[in-house]
């Protein structure tokens, strides 16, 4: 059976999480009847790891193929961190699919040589030691002080990360390390864009880094959310959902 949605919200998760990080957005979208799709990348949320090497472009193709298979032709894409890299690649290769985009806690720059080296070393360490050390590090670096006080949220985040396979983690780290630079792409983006940063994200994507995306895209909107670090949709869902729903309604009416 083929399903056709004129448009839907596409929720692209951060590394090393899964689609469950958008649980609060899914609930809010369902309540007001907005269709959405929330895929898990290969190797995450207990999905089989990828066959062969993984690249951002390959992930993009998997996402696009799936959305097309269920009849979706117009997307309002939401991407946190790594999810943002996929959206940039969609603008590069599948721009006609995108009616709007929300970049969250991500950056347009490609990885620096130092960053590439660090990610490859992380991948090698996961291969030797397993993923536990990485999960501990990510829980520390990706969350705000307020989130760290919320035992339920921290337990949920750990559970999501533990569903990632070590093979998926390793191959995805390499994909992130080798991603394309998208700074020159910004001026070509002409659809509505919302850019969101977490006020407490001082380690991975500080607000001044995320803000460069908004600076490069004409007429985009930039918001910094309190009580959030690298994962605003999960850490401060109340404020994020207000922004998201207003943005989706705006895109749908333009």
What are the main properties of this structure?
254 residues, alpha/beta, Rossmann fold, six-stranded parallel sheet, 11 helices, 48% helix
Could you please describe the fold and organization of this structure?
There is one protein chain. With 254 residues, this protein is an alpha/beta fold. It has one domain (8-252): Rossmann fold, CATH 3.40.50.1820. It has eleven helices and six strands. Helix 9 links the parallel strand 5 (193-198) and strand 6. The two termini are 30 Å apart. The relative contact order is 0.18.
Topology:
Layout: E1 8-12, H1 23-31, E2 36-37, H2 56-69, E3 75-80, H3 82-93, E4 98-104, H4 113-129, H5 132-142, H6 145-148, H7 151-162, H8 166-177, E5 193-198, H9 207-216, E6 221-225, H10 232-235, H11 237-252
Strand content: 5-15%
Gross morphology is globular
The CATH topology turns out to be Rossmann fold
Kindly state the number of beta strands.
6
Radius of gyration: 17 Å
CATH class: Alpha Beta
Class from secondary-structure proportions: alpha/beta
Widest sheet: strand ordering: 2-1-3-4-5-6
**Average pLDDT over all residues:** 95
Low-pLDDT parts are none
Q: Could you spell the SSE succession in H and E letters?
A: EHEHEHEHHHHHEHEHH
Which CATH architecture? 3-Layer(aba) Sandwich
CATH superfamily: Alpha/Beta hydrolase fold, catalytic domain
| Main beta sheet strand tally, sense and closure | 6 strands, parallel
């Amino acid at each position: 059976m083929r399903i056709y949605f004129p448009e839907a919200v596409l929720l692209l998760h951060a590394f090393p999480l899964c689609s469950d990080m958008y649980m609060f957005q899914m609930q809010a979208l369902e309540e007001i009847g907005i269709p959405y799709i929330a895929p898990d990348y290969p190797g995450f949320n207990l999905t089989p790891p990828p066959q062969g090497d993984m690249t951002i472009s390959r992930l993009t193709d998997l996402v696009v193929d799936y959305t097309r298979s269920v009849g979706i032709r117009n997307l309002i894409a939401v991407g946190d961190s790594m999810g943002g890299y996929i959206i940039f690649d969609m603008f590069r290769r599948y721009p006609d699919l995108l009616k709007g985009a929300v970049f969250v806690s991500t950056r347009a720059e490609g990885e620096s040589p130092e960053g590439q080296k660090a990610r490859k070393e992380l991948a090698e360490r996961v291969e030797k030691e397993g993923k536990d050390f990485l999960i501990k590090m990510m829980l520390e670096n990706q969350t705000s002080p307020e989130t760290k006080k919320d035992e339920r949220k921290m337990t949920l985040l750990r559970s999501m990360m533990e569903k990632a396979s070590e093979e998926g983690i390793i191959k995805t780290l390499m994909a992130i390390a080798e991603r394309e630079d998208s700074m020159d792409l910004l001026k070509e983006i002409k659809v509505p864009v919302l850019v969101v940063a977490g006020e407490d994200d001082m380690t991975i994507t500080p607000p001044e880094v995320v803000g460069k995306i908004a600076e490069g895209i004409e007429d985009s909107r930039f918001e910094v959310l309190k009580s959030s670090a690298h994962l605003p949709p999960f850490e401060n869902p109340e404020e994020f959902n207000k922004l998201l729903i207003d943005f989706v309604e705006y895109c749908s009416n333009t």
